[in-house]
Amino acid sequence: MKYQFESGWLSGARRVPTPHCNDRPDGTEVDLLVIHCISLPPGQYGGPYIDDFFLGRLDIDAHPYFSEVAGLRVSAHILIDRSGRVTQYVPCDKRAWHAGQSEFCGRSDCNDFSIGIELEGLDTDTYTDIQYRTLAGITAAIMNTYPAIGRDRITGHSDIAPGRKLDPGPGFDWQRFHRELDQVT
Questions:
Q1: What is the structure's pLDDT at 184?
Q2: How far apart are CA 13 and CA 36, in angstroms?
Q3: Contact indicator for 179, 42 with CB cutoff of 8 Å
């Protein structure tokens, strides 16, 4: 599938707007793509919990782990689930709250200048074929829309928040991702 953006929204994505976002600082150029992973509860796939978490309506009584993340206000621009379905929570021209305390090339607060994509997964697990293909297609569209994002400006959450975050983890095959990206760019 060929993806494109219009007014910050990705064509063909399921839209689930979250209040967990805000405007980027004036004059900020979007020039970084950060790849993450998420599963709620950890290691369990499917279900409504990621949407609920990003929307601030996660029922902490639904699973013991949820009390650990209760009250967090986080989001990502885009989620790619295990089947390749794409959900967008925040338009890319807005600041999603995905990176937290972070730094890239000497610049802190990566949320200000980055787009965050979550892969449904666990940092110790592998990802599906369709997730790699979908991620590559969306990345190509992002690079086309935001030309300051080159291959050297695509990174993992672990690289911008070392010691604090591990995702997308050792199960994410960067070489495979770049091969998939080569096929669509």
A1: 96
A2: 18
A3: no
pLDDT in tens, 5-34: 999 999 999 999 999 999 999 999 999 999
Q: What is the largest CA-CA distance in the chain?
A: 45
- 0.90 exceeded by the pTM? yes
CA 102 to each of CA 7, 62, 76, 160: distance values in angstroms, whole numbers, following the listed order: 27, 30, 15, 5
- For residue 69, the tally of other CB atoms under 10 A from its CB is 14
Q: Report pLDDT for 1.
A: 77
State yes or no: is 118 an active-site residue.
yes
User: What's the pLDDT score for residue 91?
Assistant: 98
Spot the catalytic one: 103, 118, 120, 180: 118
Residues of the chain with pLDDT under 50: none
For the beta carbon of residue 28, count every other beta carbon within 10 angstroms: 13
Q: Read off the tokens for 110.
A: 């990566």
For residues 95 and 21, the answer to whether their CB atoms sit within 8 Å is: yes
According to the 3-state scheme, what is the secondary structure of the chain? CCCCEECCEECCCEECCCCCEEECCCCCCCCEEEEEEECCCCCCCCCCHHHHHHHCCCCCCCCCCHHHHCCCCCCCCEEECCCCCEEECCCCCEEECCCCCCEECCEECHHHCEEEEEEECCCCCCCCHHHHHHHHHHHHHHHHHCCCCCHHHEEEHHHHCCCCCCCCCCCCCHHHHHHHHHHHC
